[in-house]
Amino acid sequence: MKIALFRSQNWSRLFLFGILLSCFAFTAFNSINTDPIARLGLLTGGIITAGDFEANEGLNAVIENENHVTECMVTEFHLARLPYKQDPVISINRDANFNDRSKRLVEKAATGDAYYFDNVRAKCPGDKEDRKINSLVFKIK
């Protein structure tokens, strides 16, 4: 039995003994993710207890693929605390760890507060410059 499969550009043809059995289109794509994800510990946002929130020292960023995880370096982020029924307070961090002002904001975490991590930037292996990645939002319960 002679079976042949021929591919040209986006079309494939299946032949059996020289007779065309099928002609179909296919699309090839790369399933490797190259976008880093900012996280606080292992979380990307949501409802969290004050104790769990305070246990973190800063943000991390990773690229997760099927076979491996690539660590990236967080280069900058803005932390905003929105206390319940009060004005927001913002702190700018120039690396992955909380600076002194941010540590004080995190230590004040109380039920009803919201924390926003915005303008998160990270540099991954092979990157020439850092790039903006996802923001995070946490609500303290």
Poorly predicted segments: none
* Fraction of residues in β-strands: over 45%
CA-to-CA gap between the ends? Answer: 68 Å
User: What is the 3D form?
Assistant: globular
Q: How many separate domains?
A: 1
> Main β-sheet, in a few words?
8 strands, mixed
What is the total tally of β strands? 11
Rounded average pLDDT? 85
Explain how this protein is built:
With 141 residues, the protein is mostly beta strands. Helices cover 9% and strands 47% of the residues. The protein has one domain. The protein has two helices and eleven strands; from the N terminus they run βββββαβββαβββ. Strands 4, 5, 6, 7, 8, 9, 10 and 11 form an eight-stranded mixed beta sheet that branches. Strand 1 and strand 2 form a beta hairpin. The chain is globular, with a radius of gyration of 24 Å. The protein starts with a strand and ends with a strand.
